[in-house]
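Reminder to self: keep the SMILES exactly as supplied, no canonicalising. Ligand is NAP.
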Amino acid sequence: MNILVTGCSRGVGLEICRVLLEQGHTVYGVARSCPQEFKDLQTQYPGRLQYKSVDLSDSEHVRENVFGDFVTNKVQLDGFVNNAALAYDDIVSNINLDRLKGMYEVNVFSPMVMTKYAIRNMLLHHTKGSIVHISSISVHTGYKGLAMYASSKGALEAFSKNTAREWGSLGIRSNVVVPGFMPTAMSATLTDEQRAKIYARTSLKDATSVRSVAETVAYLLSEKAASITGQNIHVDNGTI
Ligand SMILES: NC(=O)c1ccc[n+]([C@@H]2O[C@H](COP(=O)([O-])OP(=O)(O)OC[C@H]3O[C@@H](n4cnc5c(N)ncnc54)[C@H](OP(=O)(O)O)[C@@H]3O)[C@@H](O)[C@H]2O)c1
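Structure tokens returned for the bound complex:
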């Protein structure tokens, strides 16, 4: 399969690339940077991990930047993983509109535009493709300081469910993976005390496994999940 993955350079996105490569797929990854760990994967799987540097904060140009000379119509796209995101973390009474708009560009507007062109590619090739968005447990539980971030993920969850309804008759599926807190760059600023509090809210009393999230994404992309669409799959250690 050919899979487009955003935010491929580190954290969950890099792990999704690794799992898909292990399973024999070809990955088209976009992010702004290309660290050594990503380059090592390219060396390990020659020709199967393509990369383009794209800044997803520019939704106006996301079509030409991603689909113009990278995932062209010659590529038959089987899956799209919307993983790239940033967390604008602050309390509601401090909302800064520029920062809010900047986050929505990356977390919501670019992913929506990319979904548009991913579906068009699938229609062109008559592919029963699979779309997977990465949300966050903060949508469902609430955390102080994450209202703006959680709202962007809530938008994706609604977008995915409605996309599933709209395109299901052509076999195109759309699902969401809802991870709990993971030890990645995104959560690096949390103190040990904050982490302990977050993990205490989970049934398994621990951080969510990045590998488990990536494996779930790969499962939703696969034929094994042929009857799963319009769903939010929680991979969150049982957060209550
Ligand atoms: N970490 C957690 O605890 C947690 C919990 C729940 C959900 N999530 C979600 O899981 C997903 C992956 O997060 P993560 O923890 O792996 O975060 P991360 O380590 O910060 O990685 C974020 C990825 O997004 C890319 N990205 C950010 N801004 C971009 C931009 N303007 N243009 C292009 N790419 C951009 C980054 O690449 P470059 O910097 O190279 O551009 C990076 O590859 C996100 O959707 C996040 O919201 C995370």
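Points to follow up:
The domain at 2-235 is CATH 3.40.50.720 (Rossmann fold).
The pocket of NAP is lined by residues 7-13, 31-33, 54-57, 83-86, 106, 134, 136-137, 179, 181-182, 184-187 (CB under 6 Å).
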